[in-house]
């Protein structure tokens, strides 16, 4: 299994790409749980037709009129014409869907419609509400089971973790969704699974981290950055940092943005090894390596604290880790580094890792052959000098 610390934040640029790789290594207990989830057959649920339809209230005529207009737009297997004005009016309507609880009865009726177009329209809004009751949640799972449109199924089924299914006594329904044959559903589901962190959701995420589909694995890794950085979540993240496949850099990037104690230093240590093998850190992987380094060197910026007290919430990276990170940043930005994207994105990491020491390499990079590197280095050098000037002025001001 993958229990509580503080809320984490997903780092920037967290959309992976590239072919599938081997799953991450896992501890004995985590492997056992994950294997059990991966090999167990889907839970035997009641037939969708046997699940009673709940009463959810009357529909909103204004929403129905808007939907009727959207139905006039061209519809193909790929969905509605994205440039059709009535469809755009439906998708971008600001007021009718502002309170999703009030709009829900109408959207629920559309989801339950035999008209595929109405179901496609309904799923474009933020549903279901997290506070639906047991009967409604159970019925929605039944709708997912019988849904013939893969996109509708993926969006509705994938969104079900926003509801506390375990609290409602629907853990088996949650297990069934985790084994759904629609890989896109499992990917959305994996990302949202820890909306409610408990033994069942942690166990299921352990299985999804070893899903046969790469995109499901990547979204499960990203899902670890949502909510509380509990002991179980942090242990799972540490296992992901040990990956040896093409999702390793992505896992490093996600782990670097979390609040797991000491994990930023572990990410930097892993990047230090990666820096010894430039060929393993290029293209999208190189981008993620550079972003992971920048995220790790930022330390904890206290972004989850009230802005009025944010300065007191900040936790800088330990000096030894920062110096090690600075060494990696210098390696990534070296003119001889083979991947230009890695070089450019690592420029900012120099200042985050060691603002004072960054002045020298940034000065050199302002004359780099790569125009983008020169531009970034010039910008960051000005910032480093500004920070240094502020530090010199501060004691005089305090007198």
TrEMBL record:
Q: Which Gene3D superfamilies match?
A: Leucine-rich Repeat Variant
Question: Where is the stretch described as Disordered?
Answer: 1-28
Q: Could you tell me which SUPFAM superfamilies the record lists for this protein?
A: ARM repeat
Listed transmembrane segments: none
**Which stretches does UniProt call biased (Low complexity)?**
11-28
Do you know which InterPro entries this protein is assigned to? ARM-like (IPR011989), ARM-type_fold (IPR016024)
List where Basic and acidic residues composition bias occurs: 1-10
Q: What is this protein called?
A: HEAT repeat domain-containing protein
Q: What organism does the record attribute this protein to?
A: Chondromyces apiculatus DSM 436
């Amino acid at each position: 299994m993958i229990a509580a610390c503080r809320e984490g934040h997903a780092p920037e640029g967290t959309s992976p790409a590239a072919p599938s790789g081997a799953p991450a290594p896992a501890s004995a207990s985590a492997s056992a749980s994950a294997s059990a989830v991966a090999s167990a057959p889907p839970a035997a649920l009641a037939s969708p037709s046997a699940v009673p339809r709940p009463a959810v209230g009357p529909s909103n005529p204004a929403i129905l009129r808007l939907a009727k207009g959207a139905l006039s737009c061209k519809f193909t297997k790929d969905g509605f014409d994205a440039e059709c004005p009535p469809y755009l009016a439906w998708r971008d309507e600001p007021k009718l869907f502002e309170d999703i609880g009030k709009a829900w009865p109408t959207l629920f009726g559309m989801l339950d419609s035999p008209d595929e177009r109405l179901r496609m329209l309904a799923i474009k809004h933020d549903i279901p509400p997290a506070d639906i009751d047991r009967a409604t949640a159970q019925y929605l799972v039944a709708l997912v089971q019988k849904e013939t449109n893969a996109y509708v199924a993926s969006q509705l089924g994938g969104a079900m973790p926003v509801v506390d299914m375990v609290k409602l006594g629907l853990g088996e329904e949650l297990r069934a969704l985790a084994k759904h044959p629609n890989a896109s559903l499992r990917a959305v589901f994996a990302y949202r699974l820890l909306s409610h962190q408990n033994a069942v959701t942690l166990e299921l995420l352990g299985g999804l981290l070893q899903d046969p589909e790469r995109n499901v694995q990547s979204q499960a890794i990203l899902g670890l950055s949502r909510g509380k950085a509990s002991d179980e979540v942090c242990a799972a993240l540490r296992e992901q940092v040990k990956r040896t496949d093409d999702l390793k850099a992505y896992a490093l990037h996600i782990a670097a943005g979390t609040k797991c104690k000491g994990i930023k230093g572990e990410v930097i240590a892993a990047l230090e090894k990666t820096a010894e093998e430039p060929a393993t850190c290029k293209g999208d992987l190189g981008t993620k390596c550079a972003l992971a380094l920048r995220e790790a060197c930022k330390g904890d910026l206290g972004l989850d604290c009230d802005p009025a007290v944010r300065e007191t919430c900040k936790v800088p990276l330990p000096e030894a880790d920062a110096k090690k990170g600075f060494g990696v940043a210098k390696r990534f930005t070296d003119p001889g580094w083979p991947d230009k994207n890695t070089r450019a994105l690592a420029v900012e990491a120099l200042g985050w890792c060691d603002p004072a020491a960054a002045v020298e390499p940034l000065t050199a990079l302002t004359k780099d052959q790569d125009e983008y590197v020169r531009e970034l280095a010039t910008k960051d050098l000005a910032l480093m000098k500004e920070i240094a000037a502020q530090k010199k002025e501060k004691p005089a001001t305090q007198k």
